Amino acid sequence: MSKKLSIILIVLLTILLAFVVGIMIFLFKGGEDKLNFNFKSFAIVTSGNSTKLVDSKEVTNNKKLNVEFDVADVEVVPSDTDSIKVELYSDDPGEYEITESETEIKVVLKQKENVKFSFRRKFNKIKLYVPYNYVSTFTINGTTGDLVMDEYSSATLYATIKTGDIKIKEINMAEIKVTTGDIEVEAASLLNTTFTTGDVEVGTVRFLTANGTTGDIDAKEVDRVQIKVTTGDIDIYKVNEYLSLEATTGDIDIDTAAIKDNSKIKATTGDIKIKHATGYYVSGEAKIGDVNIKGVDRKSDIELTIEAKVGDIRVN
């Protein structure tokens, strides 16, 4: 590289660095108020949730809760009273409302259509104080944000979030759809999950259904389970009644399978392993791979069929 070219590059880099530093100083001193890009949402969140309360209302318990947001975190925690309390937090809110009809409580928190550029913008937050004895339905629809819920063993949840994690301690029934994000549920009677990219982790669930494209699924104990995943591992500690598991690419690992109905496991590419399987017949076939099945009841009317195109099968 010539000396002249080196000097030119050094000058250009110095100018670029000075420009970047100047812009950062300008923004951090409040200069973002003078910038108004015609974007629906353009912000860099660096400091957690907003603490600025924009609306708050106490409403009746056991009515349907309908929550809508574009960018916000939602937190559902126990209430100290028999009523439901809703709090909305935002540094720069757009559309927002807390309304109550005869059958429904509607909560809306949206950003402004033209959000100013900011390095310091905080996430909106919706906080719901709900009694443990809530027996109605949560319907939560959002674009970006996390959902965290406490124990609501008598409630039903319908949640659809494009980008964000969902974490629930306990729910009676739940239907959860996430495009990108992790799903964690400690306990549920019925759980139906659909995801594109993310992991699913559940504790004790009576009826579990999970359909995903990319992500691992981990369950502690289920009675009846149906899982289909394109790319990802399936790991279940205990199945009590029935299972239907399918993975295109990924391993399937079960510690104890005490099934009572005919069941099936299928993997295109991946190993299948069951440590404890007794009291029923197990048949296995692998086109490319080893099959090792021991200690099963060949006279049983209940059968677990296992298929793997490429991978090993090991039972007991």
What does this structure look like?
By secondary structure, this protein is mainly β. The chain has two domains: 30-166, no CATH class; 199-316, no CATH class. The protein is 8% helix and 61% strand. The chain is flat and about 70 Å long. It starts with a helix and ends with a strand.
List keywords for this structure.
20-stranded mixed β-sheet, 316 residues, mainly beta, 61% strand, 20 strands, 2 domains, flat
Quick one: biggest sheet?
Answer: 20 strands, mixed
- What proportion of the residues form beta strands (DSSP E)? over 45%
Number of strands: 20
Give the end-to-end Cα distance, rounded to a whole number of Å: 67 Å
What is the average of the pLDDT values? 88
Given the structure, what is the number of helices? 1
Order of helices and strands: HEEEEEEEEEEEEEEEEEEEE
Q: What would you call the shape?
A: flat
Q: Spans of 5+ residues with little confidence (pLDDT < 50)? A: 32-46
Which percent bin holds the helix content?
under 10%
